[in-house]
Amino acid sequence: MHDQPLVSVLMTAYNRENYIAEAIESVLGSTHQNWELVIVDDCSKDKTVAIAKNYADKDKRIHVYINEKNLGDYPNRNKAISLSNGEYIMFCDSDDKLLPESISKILNLTESIDNFNFALSWPFCKQPINISSCEALTKHFFNQQFLYIGPGGSFMRRSFVNLIGQYPEKYGPANDMYFNLKVACNTSILLFPFDLIFYRQHENQEINNRYSYLYNNFLYMNDALTELPLPFSKKQIRFLRKKNYRRFIVNLFKYYRKTHDYKSAVHAWHKAGFKYKYLFMGIFH
User: Fold this and answer.
1) Residue 103 lies inside a defined structural domain of this protein
2) Which of 190, 207, 224 is the last residue of a domain?
3) Which of 48, 92, 108, 285 could form a disulfide with 246 if both were Cys (CB 3.0 to 4.6 A apart)?
């Protein structure tokens, strides 16, 4: 057994007693065995911690940490990153399952790439392809969006993630979208055509929080167009900014038409920091 794990599998947890045993078993069943499993519990109120500790008592590669207070999704992911030791990191959430061949398959690909930093699952590519920073950003913004895959579809070098500052924490469930854009501004990206995890769908997932996405999608994109070193002209940035205004208007209208909840729609407008001048710029985009 290696003293230093090659891969850190990060598992954040909150009230996952119904799923976490299956998630841990899936890591134990990986064909690649040079890993550590870092479980960070965000103050669960059920038996999640007891179940996780039971596995940790039997396997020294499993480490269980319990937060003193509830941090929330992405702050907890960042804490898991800070507690990891592997050369590479990947996420297997406590309600998902790691696929048996995942680590072996992705390591076989990364070994052939000089200066590998980041890989993303993309089922629409027929074979693995390593694309440059500029190519990835141009494809995403002007051809086909693909930089929206969440942490469960990512495999990354830990030192690189720490270098660029881990995940943002102010965009709710859209934090990973800003993070992926930031990644693409700083390195090439390996796209691979297979899944790393079995993604379990259920009603308690953050992805179901459509209201939060409504304004956070606008916020992260608005900030990205201002803050990130995107390889685009001023004209292209203006185009993308107006497109973001229009998208928010359309999505807000759809939300109101579906819910007839005027108060929440207005609240989303304010949460997004949306201005009336954006309305006209978006309409005439």
Assistant:
1) yes
2) 207
3) 285
Contact 84, 158 (CB under 8 A): yes
Q: Across-strand partners of 156? A: 89, 118
Q: 95-133 pLDDT, tens per residue?
A: 999 999 999 999 999 988 999 999 999 989 989 999 999
- Strand 129-131 and strand 189-192: the pairing is antiparallel
| CA-wise closest residue to 227 among 273, 178, 156, 163 | 178
Q: CA-to-CA distance for 125 and 85, rounded, in angstroms?
A: 31
The answer to whether residues 12 and 22 belong to one domain is: yes
pLDDT, tens digit, 9 for 90 and up, residues 262-272: 999 999 999 99
Q: Is the sign of the CA dihedral 145, 189, 187, 216 positive or negative? A: positive
DSSP-assigned states of every residue in 124-159: T-SS-EEE-HHHHHHHHHHT---TT--GGGEEEEHH
Q: What is the spatial distance between Cα 204 and Cα 202, in angstroms, rounded to a whole number?
A: 6
Longest distance between any two alpha carbons in the chain, whole Å = 63
- In single-letter form, the type of residue at position 271 comes to K
**Are 14 and 103 found together in one domain?**
yes
Dihedral (CA of 41, 43, 47, 53) sign: positive
Structure tokens at 36: 């550590």
Collect contacts of 265-273 with beta carbons under 8 A, ≥24 apart: 268/211, 268/214, 268/215, 269/215, 271/215, 271/219, 272/214, 272/215, 272/218, 272/219, 272/248, 273/219, 273/222
| Bridge partners (DSSP) listed for residue 269 | none
Q: With 0.90 as the threshold, say if the pTM is over it.
A: yes
Residues in contact with 163: Cβ distance below 8 Å, sequence separation at least 6, in sequence order: 186
